[in-house]
Amino acid sequence: MTTMEGLLLAAIVLLALMVAGMLAVGVRLVRRLAAPTAPTGQPLSVIVDDPEAVAERERQRQTLVELQNSVSDAQTALEAERRSVAAARAEATAVRAENAAAKAEVTTSRAEAQRVLDAAHAEADTVLQRAHRQAEEDAEQVRSTARRTGEREIAMLTSTAKDQAAEAERRLQRLDERERMHAAEAERLAERERQNVEEAERLAERDRRIAAAEAELAKWELGLQSKEQELAQAQEQRRKELERVAGLTADAAKSELVETIENQAKREAALLVRDIEADARSTGESRARHIVVDAIQRVASEQTAESVVSVLHLPSDEMKGRIIGREGRNIRAFETVTGVNLIIDDTPEAVLLSCFDPVRREVGRLTLEKLVLDGRIHPHRIEEVYDVARFEVERMCQRAAEDALVEVGITDIHPELVTLLGRLRYRTSYGQNVLKHLVETAHIAGIMASELKLDPELIKRSAFLHDIGKALTHEVEGSHALIGADVARRFGESDEVVHAIEAHHNEVQPQTIEAVLTQASDACSGGRPGARRESLEAYVKRLERIEEIAGAKSGVDKVFAMQAGREIRVMVRPEEVDEIGAAVLARDVAKQIEEELTYPGQIRITVVRESRTTEIAR
User: What is the CA 208 to chain-centroid distance, rounded?
Assistant: First the structure.
């Protein structure tokens, strides 16, 4: 009997007891209701009309109804429990069948387990026997290994003991040797003491001789001092006599001697410089001239590059009124949008655009040109045309920069540098277009590098980017060489290119061959005839300053500036300036001009010393 069956049987018994108790209570109540007396023992006829009896009877009836309902519910529950018991019995029967199958399976498993256990016992006995044999073999090997190890250790201990005995013997021998050495050292010390005593006696004798010599020397020193005093008096008398005879003091004679030596040194230095320059010219001037001339000839660029146009021609003077607009609103809107000052004067059929930024000036010129061609000029139209013109100018700048890069042969360059190069299309320097100047300089530098067996690509890149800072001179303070070096460094150019850019006007001393060739190619491009122009005022001031520098030198008679200031002829007085002095004068004038003036190309200084002798025949 399982636990489930016991629980079900207990529940059935409990329900049966509850039903029996309820039936007993119901029977008692029925009997009480059927009796002719009231619950108090009085006759029913007496309490018929009693309200309390009526209420009591009603409560009893309700209680009876509730009991009947409870009995019916109990019967229903009993019936349900009976069905549950029947189902439980069926389930118990199925469980018993499963238990029987499980018992049979357990029996089979026990038999199988017993068989496996027997096989395991047999295998364990076999393994145990094998392990015993292996253990005996290992023990025998360990014993043999231990025996051999012990023998080796005994041999090692024996050899160590022998070595220690030999070492002790050697130590004993060394101690004996040291004792003998100590004895010999003691003998040497005693001998040295005897020698020291003898040396002390000799030193005492020498001290006595030195004292006598010092006394004799003191006498000689007194004599020498008296002679020196006599000699000084004689020299003073001689100097006074010489000054009286020559009519010069010692300081004047010294300064005259220094001046004579200085003039002689200058003369010798000028001779040496002249010889060195002649030697250098004979070997290097022809080679340098060949390289520079070949580079310039192979470039073969235009004599004068184009300049930025600031004047716009109009179809008629009536267009000026339309440009100004009612109460000047068109011209104000134009200047506000473009940032370019528009100057309208009495010049027939032309207006002038003025702006310090050449790119902005070109945008303004193109905007005004499109407005004049279109004919519709009002503030809103000006803004629309300005946007179109600005985009077109940017596109032309980008195309000009790309064309220049293709012409030079440079491909890997930062896009920002390309944009800055495009802005140089409208930038000029002394009338020379800067972008064309960069292309020309790069070609000259590449040809020079090829002639000198150098890397032309790096030198062409340095020369092409040397004036990149001029695109930012209107926006950033400082020299365009230093600005360009900072820009090139920021956009990843190499240190050689950056140094060549910052050193091409000597703001930084050139340290590499790339910087030197960049300077040379820049000078060749800007100094060739017709490449640049300057204002008349600056030109006149430069010529006047050149003549002042040369005329301020001693011995100069006349100064002539020739060939637009590219050559100076200095006429000197022959009685004041000799041949060596003429060479020194030319070098001093050239050095002072280099330090004080800024000029394109180079200036040649020629010193003319002419001696004329005139005689009249009567």
Answer: 81
Q: How far apart are CA 87 and CA 424, in angstroms?
A: 107
State the DSSP code for 415.
H
Structure tokens given for 546: 């050149």
Beta bridge partners of residue 342, listed in sequence order: 353
Return the amino acid letter for 329.
R
Distance CA 104, CA 102 (A): 5
Q: What is the pTM of this model?
A: 0.42
Per the listing, tokens 């409990």 go with: 14
For residue 285, what is the DSSP state?
I
DSSP conformation class of 37: B
Strands (E) in 507-596, as ranges, are 556-562, 567-572
Mean pLDDT to the nearest integer, 185-205: 87
Cβ–Cβ under 8 Å, residues 510 and 459: no
Least confident of 278-282, 307-311, 477-481, 553-557: 307-311
pLDDT of 459 strictly over 50: yes
Band of residue 409 on the pLDDT scale cut at 50, 70, 90: confident
Q: Give the pLDDT confidence score for residue 469 in this predicted structure.
A: 87
State the pLDDT confidence band at 40, using cuts at 50, 70 and 90: very low
Residue 558 β-bridge partners: 571
Query: Residue 318: is its pLDDT beyond 60?
Result: yes
Residue 467 and residue 480 in contact, taking contact as beta carbons nearer than 8 Å: yes
Lookup: tokens for 481: 């060489």
In the predicted model, what is the mean pLDDT of residues 260-264? Answer: 78
Instruction: Output the CA–CA distances (angstroms, integers) from residue 192 to 162, 178, 189, 197, 239, in the order listed.
Output: 44, 20, 5, 9, 63
Neighbours of 22 (CB within 10 A): 17
Tokens in use for 339?
């940032």
Per-residue 3-state assignment (H helix, E strand, C coil) for 8-19 = HHHHHHHHHHHH
Between CA 607 and CA 616, with CA 610 as vertex, the angle to 5 degrees is: 165
Cβ neighbours of 142 (radius 10 Å): 10
How far apart, in whole angstroms, are the C-alpha atoms of residue 525 and residue 522?
A: 5
Q: Does an H or E element contain 353, and which? A: strand 350-354
Burial group, residue 342, by CB count within 10 angstroms (0-12, 13-18, 19+): buried
Which of helix, strand or coil describes residue 225? helix
Q: Is the pLDDT of residue 362 over 70?
A: yes
Question: Which pair of structure tokens corresponds to residue 67?
Answer: 């009991």
Percentage of the chain lying above the pLDDT 70 cut: 84
Give the Å distances, CA to CA, from 36 to 42, 65, 179: 9, 21, 156
Helix (H, G, I), strand (E, B) or coil at 356: coil
Distance of CA 616 to the CA centre of its chain: 83
Write the single-letter amino acid at 27: V
> What is the spatial distance between Cα 146 and Cα 357, in angstroms, rounded to a whole number?
102
CA distance 75 to 73: 5
Token digits of residue 370: 């499109």
Contact between residue 435 and residue 421 where contact means Cβ atoms under 8 Å apart: yes
Instruction: Tell me how far apart the alpha carbons of residues 603 and 561 are, in angstroms, rounded to a whole number.
Output: 10
| Percent residues over pLDDT 90 in the chain | 1
Residue 45 has a pLDDT of 43
